[in-house]
Design brief:
The longest helix is centred in the N-terminal third of the chain and has 14 residues, at 45-58. The radius of gyration is 24 Å and the shape is globular. The chain has helices spanning 4-12, 24-34, 45-58, 80-92, 128-133, 161-165, 344-348, 418-421, 423-426; strands at 22-23, 63-67, 73-77, 99-103, 109-110, 121-124, 143-146, 152-154, 171-179, 194-198, 204-205, 217-221, 226-229, 241-244, 247-250, 265-266, 275-280, 299-304, 331-335, 339-340, 355-359, 363-364, 367-371, 380-384, 390-394, 404-408, 431-435. The strands form 6 sheets. Strands 4, 5, 6, 7, 8, 9, 10, 12 and 14 form a 9-stranded mixed sheet that branches. Strands 16-17-18-19-21-24-26-27 form an 8-stranded parallel sheet, with no helix packed on it. The chain has a 3-stranded antiparallel sheet with strand order 1-3-2. With 445 residues, it is of the alpha/beta class. The chain has 9 helices and 27 strands.
Amino acid sequence: MLPHDLRDCFLYLGMCPEDYEIPSWKLTRLWIAEGFIQRRPGKSLEEVAQENLVDLVARNLVMVDKSNARGEVKACRVHDMIHEFYRSQSAFAKQNLFKEVKKSREGDFDPPLSEISNSRRLCIHSYVVDFLRKKPKGPYVRSFLCFSKEAVVLQPDYISSIPDAFTLVRVLDVNPIKFSKFPTKITQLILLSYIALSGDEFRTLPDAVSKLWNLQTIKIDTLSRTFDVKADIWKMMQLRHFKTKAAIVLLNREGRGKGGENLQTLSRLAPNLKNLGIRGNLSKLSDTTCLAKLDLLQKLKLVYDIFPDPISQNGLRALPSPEKFPANLTTLTLSSTYLEWKHMATLGQLRSLEVVKLKEYAFMGKHWDAVDGGFPCLDVLHIARTDLVFWTASGSDPFPRLKCLQLNNCERLEDVPLSVLEKSLEGAAFAVFVFRTTICTNRER
């Protein structure tokens, strides 16, 4: 028997179509928004949700589809053999966990539109536009999720159809639906705690979003390079996660509020962040002490982007000095920074660093000489796309705790230090992954 809260997390996966890969970040935030996650002493809701997912995996109830370099679940899916079990158990459970909207061959929807209001949670996988054209009304629907495997283009006439249909919705994940413009009526859904929207032309988060005081998670997919946030997120007391691939520009910087106290994920600085991504012109980053003030920050991603100027001709000259990095930083990703390899010595002085990912010419130059005395806690090193030819080592072991080395698209690389590769011969605890890379290791250079 599963515990009550774990049972709901398990059954909730029945909303997904067969063979649907769901990111663990999305799944755990949905669980939190739905109220399935109970607080435990000394742990955040996100940590408890992740533990629940790991528990379901350990019980062979959920399959791991993707994992990161540290073995943590990145994406999962429901096994085909128990998918129908999920759905039947959910449909007939006393709590009426969810209801899937289907369309029959005769063109009728099940459940009928007249019965939509009897369901607390609705999901739909296909015929999304046809359903919305019927102007459904679900005043008691608390969650509406779309899991279409194909993008659904919503014409301007139907942009307000979702907020008009579900006025008291709390969880709204309609990421497959492509809105032609931001649905402003969404800002009238005052009970919203989770929202995931998609629009290729989305460029702004309206100021009215500030009034959604229950909102915990905002996820926006857009093709825009920048995303202007007019909403005053510092007044949104419950906001925990704001995720988008665009570079966020905070237009309201007054910070007059305590909303930032719960903020954990954002593409710009906030005092209680654990994950941070910065994209743009990073040339002045070495002059600031802002990063050092983020005491709880664990994961940092820096992407150098000076579009339309060519980055390769204007790479970063230096990294911030070690004392300007967060003290508890464990994972660092650099992309398109075009640094010289000598600056790796700076990263080596970050004592808590466990994972380093160097992507898209993070470092440039034919020769890198790794020296002893750095990277005392580094477990994972990932190098993807570089012009590095000779990787040598001064000293006996520049990476004393390295357990995983991954090389992607390092076509010019001819030599890796024997002190690194010899780790793979010492036991099964060390792994080397090489993709589109040819390495010669005849001698220690």
